[in-house]
Amino acid sequence: VNELKFIYEGKAKKLFEYENNVLIYYKDDVTAFNGEKKDNLIGKGKINKKISVFMFELMEKNNVKTHFIKDIDETTFLAKKVEIMPLEVIVRNYTAGSFCKRYGIEKGKKLKMPLVEFSLKNDDLGDPMISDDAIIALDICSKKDLEHIKNEALKINNILNNYFKQFDILLVDFKVEFGKNNNEILLADEISPDTCRFWDKNTMESLDKDVYREGKGDLVDTYTALIRRINL
Ligand code: C5P
Fold first, then answer.
1. Considering the entire predicted model, what is its pTM?
2. What value of ipTM does the predicted structure carry?
3. How far is the C-alpha of 197 from the C-alpha of 174, rounded, in Å?
4. How far is the CA of 1 from the centre of ligand 1 (A)?
5. Class of 5-80 per CATH?
């Protein structure tokens, strides 16, 4: 990896330039609460890379354009270079997490319709929620691009819901990020149990990063059980 040009290091991934593309390396690091809680969990990077690759391939099969190009090895895949939009796009099907806190409601209620929310990606500000109009007024993206992103997020929600349903897993909510490559908007970043909430349909038990956030058990064991359950 030494001769590759390092581009960026995030909380869970490292990016290197490769020809005109990027190699995305999944670290074993895990963080929560905006980096306040952190650990290195051996084997986590490998599992999340595997799930992400599978999910990007699933999206491509269902006509969602992504940055994914090809799988490289146990911890790395190749992706198109994108300019990430500074937005976290969150889709919720059931109440959980910050949504419950914000509105003072109990968790686990099915929402009347899938809900798309946006947060501004800014660690110093703690990723504040941002309205559609504020996104456009601040010229973070155009109205047309925002509509597109919203539609894609809902499409991704349908694809994921359908996929996880067969394993009796509820998709509670998830976060995705989009980026631009040659003016084309692509699904980027990752889709993994770090960025989604999955619950067992019958027991409502968490199969995702909430296990780490809430100290409910061993995260690598949880993720290993999840990939077995979904036949990966
Ligand atoms: O914390 P909150 O309830 O807003 O999270 C909603 C969803 O977005 C969860 O699935 C969580 O894992 C994901 N998320 C994320 N990265 C963040 C914030 C939330 O992946 N920075």
1. 0.97
2. 0.98
3. 6
4. 31
5. alpha beta
